[in-house]
Specification:
By secondary structure, the protein is an all-alpha fold. The protein has helices at residues 27-57, 61-77, 79-88, 91-117, 130-165, 171-200, 204-221, 245-259, 263-281, 284-290, 296-324, 326-345, 350-378, 381-416, 419-441, 447-467. Helix 11 (296-324) packs antiparallel against helix 12. The protein is globular.
């Protein structure tokens, strides 16, 4: 069934003579927006809680990286099936269900921390309680894995639902506003709150994160309409899936992406970019504690640099794209993403890392606004969930691999050099790999190619809408 949206997107009165009218994005969009912001606020609080809990349990780089691998592994093994599910079910209902599941799992983590860890916030506090240490670590890994599976389906549905609640010409604006607000909640407001909560009681960040998922589920449930994929043709209804149809439908999504001359290399490039980034974040908490000597408050402030860059990038992305062109904007992301890890690896004070995070996140959000809006514009609605999932399989599926390699890099480097040099090594490796990726990507991501694909997608969608 075609998505039903509310007729609330009529232009408002012009803000001033000669200016184009401001167009509302609609109540449905704002409900999805609010749900995303609330859940990201809880995630920002937990963003401090999870790594600090892991570092309280173990100082082993591989074990700490394993927690992040567990959370990201579902992007490698579940993304393609999640795409088929997204195109089969009501996307709004799936989002509600997944947020509800995440609330339950996160609340279970809070209860475990309260029961086993009590109110001990210091990294060394649990070292003397071996049984408690391994029990908490096991719970943390299992919960991270479950949360990752729910996140894959929820996020794929959320990204797929946006073109059903926002007109195609407003996609960049809608995505930019949402990501800016998410950055504020996730990295500007959430982490400082999380660090204060850790100081008060270790379990509090997880309680808040669970509550945020529950509220997000309620807000998404208020979105009006049916949000299944459009039928393939006028009057054609989706037939019940045959037992072997899963593989067939997944292959359709894979074939569509691999046959597209722009999205195929873009997916490979983004996957490589995320793998390189994951190298550095695998043991970031150890780098922050042992090299930068940050406290929980300073670690939270460190992550706020990303928020400032993300807010700027989200709201400014459409204007930057129009001024520079889509291609140069993507080149800028690649160049900055190669340079900032080197600067971080050479740093010994957290304010410098703060600035680097701001730059890196700014260009990262710029990349997202351009490329996600492009995908939403050119992929047919009946394939949007599956093709998005294939794209994100390459993009996000590389993160657990990069995370594991990052932890392994520190372990191997520590056999050769000092602990401090070993913790710096992933940043230097990321800079080298980022430079090689930039040289590969620039000739393949030009403004002409991106604009041509966007125009072709708009023409195809307009022709289909006229036919229907």
């Amino acid at each position: 069934m075609t998505a039903v949206t509310e007729p609330t997107d009529a232009p408002d009165a012009p803000d001033a003579p000669g200016r184009p009218p401001h167009v509302s994005l609609g109540r449905n969009y704002h409900r999805v927006y609010a749900a995303s912001v609330v859940s990201n606020l809880g995630d920002g609080v937990a963003q401090i809680g999870y790594p600090w809990l892991a570092s309280a349990v173990t100082r082993n780089p591989l074990l700490i990286a394993a927690v992040a691998v567990a959370q990201r592994l579902p992007w490698l093994v579940f993304t393609l099936p999640a795409g088929v599910i997204t195109d089969r079910v009501d996307r709004r209902k799936a989002m509600v269900l997944m947020d509800s599941c995440r609330a339950v799992v996160t609340l279970a983590v809070a209860v475990a921390v309260l029961g086993l860890g009590g109110e001990l916030p210091a990294p060394d506090a649990l070292k003397t309680v071996v049984g408690t240490k391994y029990a908490l670590y096991s719970i943390l890994v299992v919960a991270s894995l479950l949360l990752g599976f729910a996140e894959v389906l929820r996020d794929n549905c959320a990204q797929t639902i946006i073109p059903s609640v926002v007109d195609i010409e407003h996609l960049e604006r809608a995505n930019g506003q949402m990501w800016s607000a998410e950055q504020v909640a996730n990295t500007l407001i959430g982490p400082p709150l999380g660090s204060l909560m850790i100081a008060a009681a270790f379990f509090l960040p997880f309680v808040v994160d669970a509550a945020s998922f529950a509220i997000a589920a309620g807000l998404t449930a208020l979105v009006v309409g049916q949000f299944r994929a459009k039928p393939l043709a006028l009057g054609e209804m989706a037939a019940p899936a045959a037992p072997g149809a899963w593989k067939v439908e997944m292959r359709e999504g894979v074939r569509w992406l691999l046959s597209h001359p722009l999205l195929r290399p873009m997916a490979f490039i983004l996957g490589s970019l995320n793998l390189i980034g994951a190298l550095t974040f695998a043991t970031l908490v150890l780098f922050a504690q042992e090299v930068l000597h940050t406290s929980p408050i300073e670690f939270a402030l460190l992550t706020m640099g990303g928020a400032l860059g993300g807010v700027t990038g989200g709201y400014a992305a459409p204007r930057i794209r129009k001024r520079l062109g889509s291609g140069p904007c993507l080149w800028l992301t690649l160049v900055v993403s190669a340079a900032t890890p080197v600067a971080i690896g050479l740093s010994s004070v957290w304010p410098i890392v703060f600035v680097m995070f701001a730059l890196e996140t700014l260009v990262g959000v710029l990349w997202n606004v351009i490329t996600v809006s492009l995908r939403q514009a050119i992929i047919p609605d009946e394939l949007l969930g599956r093709v998005n999932s294939v794209y994100r399989f390459f993009a996000w599926g590389m993160i657990p691999i990069g995370t594991a390699l990052g932890g392994l890099t520190v372990v191997i480097a520590e056999m050769i050099w000092s602990r401090e040099t070993a913790l710096r090594t992933p940043f230097f490796l990321a800079g080298i790999l980022g430079a090689l990726l930039t040289m590969y990507a620039i000739p393949r991501l030009t403004t002409a190619r991106l604009d041509a694909a966007r125009d072709e997608g708009r023409a195809t969608r307009a022709a289909r809408d006229a036919r229907d």
